[in-house]
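hiii, so i know i said id send this last week but things got crazy w the move. better late than never?? heres the sequnce for the chain we talked about at the cafe, plus the structure i predicted for it. fair warning i was half asleep when i ran it
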Amino acid sequence: MHASRVILMITLLAMPSVSLRSAPDPEVSADLPLPEEVFPELKDILWQALAQSPRMITRNFELIEATHELGATRARQYPRAGGFGMYFYQRDDRVDRPEPSLGEKFYYDVRVTQPVFHWGALKDETERARIQAKIEEADYLEAYRLLALSVRRQYLGLIVRKAVRVRAQAAFDRQVRRVEMQKVRVASGEAPSSVLQPEELVLRERQVDLERATYDFENALRTFRRTTGVSDFGAERVPGEVPKIEVGGEEAVLDLRRNFVEKGDLQEAFRLRKALFSLQREQLREKITRRDLWPKFDFQAGLTQNEISYTENIGDRVGVTSLFAGLRVTWNIFDSRATRERMLASRARQRRLEQEIRNLEQELRDEALAAADELRIFGMAMRNADQRLVMQVSGRKMAEENFNRGLATEEHVAAAAYSEQVARVNAFIGRSSYLEGVANFLSAVNADPIVLEVMPKILNR
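okay and structure toks below
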């Protein structure tokens, strides 16, 4: 088992539950197809990225760190035991005695302390650490939401880049044939040698296009492996086309947008949850700071051994073992206004966070509205690209029929086939953009099925 998978399992087992709402039903709408529904392998990759992506591994460590910080903070409410001990050999040269005094000394102090009354500050510190853990969970889910979008976008981009590379190869091969044809014409005297130069220049341009398309595809493939952590993902696993998709789900889009913008779904957005938790954490910070100048009471019991003199001659000492128990009071009475300044700074941070929350709420609404409009535009563009492809397929078939009847040249057929290939790539781009638009919209309204499927695994452990 990979170390990253072990990290994920530890994280899921260690995380406390939080007050985020339980995930809704991942099934959103059959009319809103996601990329992983069109390409089933992509869903497996999304799950692998959750455990193997470098970005998510970092988030896993942050979750584990927050969990242990919560445990450490909670422990401050419980008893603590400690002490010290000294053992040494001692020689005293005394003026009242002719011989030096030799002896062995042994001191120790062992005590147990239990906080009794700190005005609720220790409980508030624990609650503050619990809120910090909630912030880390919201950060984790937001990171996976963005990772899922990135993986989908890169996967669809690989399909398009692969098709572009095929198109560039076809254009290069077609130009090679044109150059060979012109060479034959020049050799036979049908055309002057000057016709070769522009054709060879176009050939070199097509070669550059092919090499650029190859580089773009291979570079995107490396980026995809790095993003997902799937190091064995090869070019052969990239689909060669994007199948035709029917546009639908208008009612589902309207319902999801309305629920998010006008109803309470907005409050479940991970970024907003983090901001709200941050405000709660800052409010607790102010409460804790206010009590810094209040007396604090602890119960303390212990055992000590020391020396004491019971006579007028302080040189005559005896060992004493003491057992004690009682109440200890600590009181920081004056700190030159440091506590007051920290409270004022905390209040300023609260006002800033409140303003950021208002701004974020509007930003999330705008993103949801923009994603819905963008999805509608992508659907229109996809339909146009598909219709253009149908027209180009008909044009290529007509050119082939005319060629068979002797009404068109082979060059006309090749040109029609190339135009069809260009239209096919454009159709792939349109379909990919639409699929990406669906994912962006569902993610913007906090309804991404893959993220909703992950939520219970993080929140309910």
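btw Strands lie at 80-92, 101-117, 296-308, 318-330. thought thatd interest u
miss u guys!!
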